[in-house]
Hints:
Layout: H1 2-24, E1 28-29, E2 34-36, E3 41-42, E4 48-54, E5 63-69, E6 79-80, E7 93-96, E8 102-105, E9 112-113, E10 126-129, E11 135-139, E12 142-146, E13 154-155, E14 161-164, E15 172-174, E16 176-179, E17 187-194, E18 201-206, E19 211-217, E20 222-224, E21 233-240, E22 243-250, E23 256-261, E24 267-273, E25 276-282, E26 310-315, E27 322-324, H2 331-339, E28 346-349, E29 357-360, H3 364-367, E30 376-381, H4 384-446, H5 467-473, E31 482-485, E32 490-496, E33 499-505, H6 514-524, E34 535-541, E35 544-550, H7 557-561, H8 572-592, E36 596-598, E37 607-609, E38 615-617, E39 624-626, E40 633-634, H9 647-652, E41 654-655, H10 657-673, H11 689-698, H12 716-729, H13 740-748
Helix pairs in contact: 8-10, 8-13, 10-12, 11-12
Subcellular location: Cell membrane
Transmembrane segments: 396-419
Domain Apple: 304-383
Amino acid sequence: MATGATSYLTIPIFHCCFLLWLCQARDTLKPGEDLREAETLISLNRVFELGFFSSGGTPSSSHYLGIWFKNDPNKKPVWVANREYPLLDSSGILSIRHDGNMEIRDRRGIPIIVNFGMLAPSSKTIATLLDSGNFLLKEGHKIVWQSFYYPSDTLLPGMKIGLFNLFTENNRSQYLVSWQSSSVPTTGSFALGLDKYNFTLVKVWHRDGFSRQIGFWDGKRLKFQFESSSHDHNFSYVSKPNEVYFSIQTEEKRSYSWFVLSSSGQIQEYKMMGQKILMENRSICENTTVSKATDCYIRTPYMCQNGETFSEIKGSMPDSAIVSDSVHLGLSDCEILCKDNCSCAAFASFRDDGTGCELYYGEKKVLLRFIGEGKRTIHVRGDTSTESGEQHNRRLLWLVVTPVLSLILPIIVALVCYLRWRNHRLKDLGLKRFQVQVGSYEAAVDQDIGGDKYGRKKDHDLPLLSFDCVATSTNNFSDENKLGEGGFGPVYKGTLLGNEIAVKRLSRQSSQGLEEFKNEVQLISKLQHRNLVRLFGCCIQREEKILIYEYMANKSLDSFLFDPTKKMLLDWKHRFSIIEGIAQGLLYLHKYSRCRIIHRDLKTSNILLDVDMNPKISDFGMARIFGDDEARAKTTRVVGTFGYMSPEYAVHGHFSIKSDVFSFGVIMLEILSGRKIVTFRHSDRFVNLLGYAWDLWKSGKGLEFMDPTLSNTCLSSQFMQCIQVGLLCVQERPGDRPSISDVISMLSHENTNLPAPKESAFYIRTSYSASSMQQTNSLNDVTVSDILGR
Length: 790
């Protein structure tokens, strides 16, 4: 009897506990309530869950508000509220504030409005999570805002992808946008949606401007270039006068399915089979079944000897690898950067979360020595197994050659002794010529170039210094003397005959070589101008290639301009002076030097500042000489730097003096705004720095483009004039851009009526989530051989 009584009591207690547990699982957030890090909202039938999560899975990682399937063991979010504004730590709180709008905040107290695109009309709102995965903000029965209006990387059944409120001021576009990496939900490299010019086409865009058609509406049904194995959903296409979109619907009594645009650009199909979630990648490349989606976007490089495929190895990158630590670059961006440049031998993600790029431009045989010395995944161009076999063969060859070398060692010793004696003679001669060179240069600068009115001066032979001499001047290239490192190699500070010098040493793993070295020696040694860096001498000995320059005490312009503390030293007077100085240096190159010279790699890191903050153009390794009757040239090897290249050069390989004018315009806009061309992204529109400047100038809000540190020192009229000149320089067509002499004239006459600039090149006014997606035929942020300054 006791056992039976116990069983009768157990059943009601169990039901009470179950009902109490259900009551605690809420699906709605009301005014005055908070949702904290350890709490979640759960939809009515326990399909979806909303709460906070961390990108790295640790308390110190960035935190976000997201929605995921309740029974997903990995809790991979299908929607993220604050993709561009991660929270600092686990102190996040979601609440409905006094005006009816949802906000997220952390311990910093900075509010992030979740429904910023559609604000609440009153304070009488509630937020509810539905079983469809849609998160609603409602005022009574009226929907104020919903998460389905702002998709992340996931297309759920019932979610619409397309264009809305067409031909009105409130037009809106909805796109899927990939994550930055598999663990970082920040806006990534790929977007999927309807083409804004041809509404029947479904495309995937890469943010550098390339796109790929993946489907189309044939008038009866939506067809895709990838095939789905699932028959559990139907694609629908709706076209009305004011909106056009497509969506999917899951058929009843079948498995639930949805699609994800991955960080690598793949289409991933997910299916829920009972309590299990299955995934399958879908290639979007034509006539293929298995392929990396990034292959669809990459232009074929010019005759890459090592092929266009990459092999994976485990190891570490050499110290000479070039790093771009921008969080806006994912692994697919790294592949495109490397694959589009034949000089790139390998790439890897810079961070553990898959963001940032590390690119290696040296020899593969050097890289393969690091196999097994680290746990990072390195993507190496070509077949690494063949390279490993070749290394083994070389080791066998060395075992045979070693005895032979021992026989000729006495001859080698005698030769070394002779060369040391010869080098001492060259050193003495070089030092004397170096001293003469420095003295003649100082005198020339005092006379504002020296020689005749065009700056022509009697040639001096460039001093050739011995390696021992240069090594001694830099304390044997000690780390204490190292100023920095770029694509050419490391740069050291040295002292020679009482003069401070900068020594640039070509790295054996450098992306540049003998051609660039000879180009710089032949060009810059013949040039003399107060706004050009002076080359004092060089060293060519054994495998060493070294250039000796005048020392610039304040390093490069970008080290000041993009540093939050040091930029305070660049008031308006200094910045305007720097702009004028760069223009004067360009004028000399384009018009008054011995021959017309196109620099081809102008950027803030190649503008050096002396002790008085006077600008000097440096790095002529990519420069080219033009004849007097030559207007433009074409090259099959496009070289330059991400963000600074003119469209005609980046796309077609055409370059002229107007290519340098374009780069100068980019530098001007960077100086005015204090923002970097390669990292700037507008908070709510996918627009680069040029497009942002154009938008503000066109709407009469140009002063909003000003670096805040200039507010107390800048003349508004002069600033607006500079923006207009900068926009004139970055116009799409070379013929529309002014010459550099015209630029100097515009800057010198404040009251001059300037022509109105046309739309900026590379101007893409795109929002993946809230604004209309538009794009020009130009490429955005083309990346080529050099990523960092040298």
